[in-house]
Amino acid sequence: MQIFVLRYDRREGKLLKLYSFAESERAKAQAQRLALELEIAANRLDQEAVLLEAESERALKFSHARYFEDLDSLAKALKEAS
Hints:
The protein is an alpha+beta fold. It has one domain (2-81). Helices cover 43% and strands 30% of the residues. The N and C termini lie far apart (33 Å).
């Protein structure tokens, strides 16, 4: 498993940064997420910092597509699915 920390802009609906860590670097990944959370809060940004685990970046993009696709693409996919 790999650990990923994402910085996502809610207003723009786009991924700003993706950090990747080995499973053995869990503490480093948690520290990165915390640093991002503190920066986001201090600057009152409409963003989120997320720590996720997946087998690969490809698997992460499949299981958490909302972080990787723009809002129009997601809306279209939801419409097609219903």
